[in-house]
Amino acid sequence: MQGAQALKIDVRGVLYFTLSEIAPRAWITLTKCNFRCRGCFSQARDAKGKMMHPEEILEKLNAACIRYYGFIPEEVLITGGEPTITKEYLLSLMDGLKKIGAKNIVLCTNGYEIGRDEVYGKELARSGLTEVHLDIKAYDKALHHWYTGKSNIPVLKAVKNLIDAKIDLIVQTVYIPQIVEAAEIKKIASFLAGINPEIRYRIDPFEPGFSYEKVARSPTQEEMETAYEAASEYLPNAILSMSCRREFTKEPRKSRWITVYPDLTVKRRDIKEYEDERRKEDARNVLRFGNGKVEACDKINF
Q: What digits encode the pLDDT tens for the residues 173-186?
């Protein structure tokens, strides 16, 4: 057995649920990731949160949505962390979501396990998955390994596996100055176009205020537009966006959302509060482990 097949786990950490104020829609945030991205911004990267069986997640999600919306939204997104590292757990969770009325189940993933397991994509489709947001961090193999600690061969293979499974696909890449810039994004776009030029491709800006390690500054608008032009040479469905956005649109994002914690307490958060929480977490980590952050780089060489 290989990949996620070997990890049969009954419980996983759940950090919180998120409810959209734009449209009825819910996110489930599972903790723990198989990558160690240098610019990671997710609070769910490490193994923490409340340990729950899939049935407990469904119960909590149902209660939160009924309280806020009065019904279960048709769209539920599963994010992390990395949801795919526990295959049977994820399949069970999606089966349950389908049974309680979710018609559009969306998975946010780095694709590593899906690329390692030939049948994973098709099993996800059978369990009700309708859409995947796949992160491709870099096309260059050495750069990807430096940035994530893992090979990108399974990630690139996941693109075809998901298309073969007939799952709607959005690929996204974060523009990181001096690390992942227009030339690298152009390589990713060219690769994707070789599989299917109609693939939707989203370029997100790196936001250093949210990341664990301050590897770079934010990109300029000019840099983002240059990357967009490079990608759109190959992919007509390329756009500039934000990693936390659900809608595939150029419209400005909303700045607040509803966070529901596993004990069902509720907090309306905004971007500044999220950034403040990340800073506090950084401070706690420095006290526990010392300052091991990577400083911003003028140039990355491999």
A: 999 999 999 999 99
